[in-house]
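Narrative of activities, Objective 1.

The group set out to show that a structural description can be obtained from nothing but a protein's sequence at a throughput compatible with the screening campaign. Below is one input-output pair from the validation batch, recorded exactly as produced.
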Amino acid sequence: MAASSIRIFVLDDHTLFRETVTAALGVQKDFSVTGQDGNAEQARSMLSQSKPDILLLEIALPGQSGFSLLGEMATLSPSTRTIMMASTEVKEDVVEVMRLGARGFLLKHTPLALFLKCIRKVHEGEIWLSSHLTEAAFQALGSRQATRLEDDENRLSQRETEVIQLVIQGYKNRDIAQKLFISEKTVKNHLSAIFHKLGVHDRLELTLHVFEKRLFPP
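Output recorded for this entry:
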C-alpha cells in the first residue's frame, strides 16, 4: 500500500453493492479500503479507531440511519470526509446531509469512473454533488431570474454568477481563472465579494446557500 493511499471505509447494508464497491476500490493504486460494514452501530468503533480519509455512507441504513451517523462523525473521526450515497435523489436529503457535514452526494448507480472521481475530488478538499443537481443549479444560476439571490442591494454581477457556477462544479481558483481568462487574484477578489454579499464563509456554505435558496427548476 502506497503511503499516499486514500483510506476508505464503506458503510452500506446491501452486501452485494458494498462488496462490489470494495472490490472496485481495491484495485485502484491510490486507494486502500480500511473496512466495511452494513450496520452503523457496529461501524462506530471501527470508524473511531481507523479514522479513514473517506467514508462512503448509505443514507437509508437499518437501525441507526446514515443521517444520524453523519451527525456523529465530527466526534468519531473529525478528519474523515463523508460522501453520502443513495438509490434515489431527494433534493431535501441532499441539503440536509450537506448541513450535517457531508462533502459529497452520490447516486448508487453512478458510473464507476465518476464514482472514483468523486472520491478523489472530495479527498482533495472539493465538494461533489450529483450531476443532476449541479446541472440544475448551473442552469438556474445562468438564468436572469437567478442573478438576484438576496435583494436589490446584494445583486451579484454577471461575472460573480459565472464564478459561482464554476465553484459549484468543483473547479479550483486556478481552473476558474483559466476558464474565465482572469488572474487567480481576481478570482479570489470575486469570491470575497460573493461571500460578503451572501453572508457565507467558504465554498461549502456557498454551495448550501445555492440549494437552500431553491436555485433550481421545480
